[in-house]
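Quarterly update, task 2.4: succinic acid-bound model.
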Amino acid sequence: MQINPLSDVLGAEVVGVDVANLDDATFAAIHEAFLEHLILVFRDQHLTPDRQIAFSERFGELEIHLSADHLLPENPKIVLISNKMENGRYIGAVSAGDYWHSDLSCQARPNKASFLYARELPNDGGDTGFCNQYKALETLPDELRRQIEGRRAIHTFNRMRNPRVKVPVMYDKADAQMRYSDRAPDDGIHPIIRTHPETGRKALYVSHRFTVGIEDMDEAAARPLLDALFEHQLRADLIYRHKWRPDDMILWDNRCTTHHAYGGIPTGQIRHMHRTTLAGDVPF
Ligand code: SIN
């Protein structure tokens, strides 16, 4: 097995390993690399859903995604991220990742980490960006840091309550109400500076997709503060943009990174991915 850094900011590729057949020592080395590099790209994997699930479960308990109509029917621990259509509807979450986020930070217990496996890729487009939130915090100007120390932010699943995001055009009003409001868990309220439970390092923990306010701060004060955090957080030097290769599987740490699907898939081409997601802890 070789572990090669992919950029100066985060990410490493893991080559020469079959994640479905790992001894304990190799798994321990992978786990250590995961904490060091924040995202790992496993090249040349040939995974059935069961094998992807078995590998994912070595890192912890899987969570069944709240998008009930996008789960793999024969194995609901896998959520489909796909623009494939059947009977006039998308079989997967086609808009997943359209805004920068950390997975389901809108829950009381947001997701710890996620695995995305490329089953079918377009010839162009479909990149995923990853942003290092340890570095986002480390490089935050002192004045901004002072304003967020000890504060908690409000995260919502409901896109209709977030002025920074749009409801995807294919959903009419009733569909949007069902997907984003009826299904929404109670808001997650989390420290803006989060401590990683395994490394002890501190990271910025807000995102465009889910963060809509700051606890005990009125909207007029919270909005420009969040805008300043979002602008800083997405500095180009904090981001690694991944161009997928066939049979890549990426594991990312939601506790210290955000990510975004850039889209740009040519019309008529398919991007079909299988995602597994680990349940997480209450952020502190
Ligand atoms: C996601 O946000 O989980 C999906 C990212 C992607 O499809 O690239």
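Highlight for this quarter: The chain has one domain: 2-278.
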